[in-house]
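// run 5 | inverse folding | seed 20
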């Protein structure tokens, strides 16, 4: 379990059965009332980004994400191809799934993929 007070960029939590990644967060302490955390979160299954508000100190289950070392091979028709360095299995990811990371990819570079 992770507290919303411990949010950091790229922390992954499980909400309603889906894995969510914290993109941005802000701890807000209004003059009147209880503190809260406003977070912009990306659904790792669908890629959608939403803004959510949590009570300060609320506890959420941490999502355990498998990260793999892969090699970027090439891009074709908006699909980016990667190869697993351990078993040589190839994986295709869309531009929507990769987001701004597509601007930094070079052929044959090693990357970590979730």
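// decoded
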């Amino acid at each position: 379990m992770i507290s919303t007070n411990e949010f950091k960029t790229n922390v992954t939590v499980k909400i309603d059965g889906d894995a969510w990644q914290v993109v941005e967060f802000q701890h807000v302490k209004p003059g009147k009332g209880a503190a809260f955390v406003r977070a912009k979160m990306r659904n790792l299954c669908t890629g959608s980004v939403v803004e959510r508000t949590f009570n300060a100190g609320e506890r959420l289950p941490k999502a355990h994400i498998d990260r793999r070392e892969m090699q970027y091979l090439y891009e074709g028709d908006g699909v980016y191809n990667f190869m697993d360095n351990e078993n040589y299995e190839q994986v295709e990811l869309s531009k929507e799934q990769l987001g701004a990371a597509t601007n930094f990819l070079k052929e044959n570079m090693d990357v970590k993929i979730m």
